[in-house]
Write a structure and sequence with these properties.
Helix content is 8%, strand content 28%. The chain is mostly beta strands. It has one domain (19-64). A 4-stranded mixed beta sheet has the order 3-2-1-4. The longest helix is centred in the middle third of the chain and has 5 residues, at 41-45.
């Protein structure tokens, strides 16, 4: 299992971006400040998340990490 430490900073990008993981029907968005947002695909489609998913550094399944 990999450990992810917060805050996340990317040396190639001055803007810190969230991570997104899919687990079943829920999308977990982890922000660099440690905040976690859980959303459904419907909420994402309606743009009801704090940030759009195209801003995320990682897209994947929790089981992969």
């Amino acid at each position: 299992m990999k450990t992810i430490n917060f805050p996340i900073s990317s040396p190639n990008n001055c803007q810190e971006n969230p991570l997104a993981f899919v687990s079943g029907d829920i999308i977990h968005i982890l922000y660099p400040n440690g905040e976690v947002e859980a959303a459904t695909a419907e909420q994402v489609d309606r743009r009801q998340t704090k940030n759009p998913l195209d801003k995320c550094l990682v897209w994947g399944f929790i089981g992969d990490f």
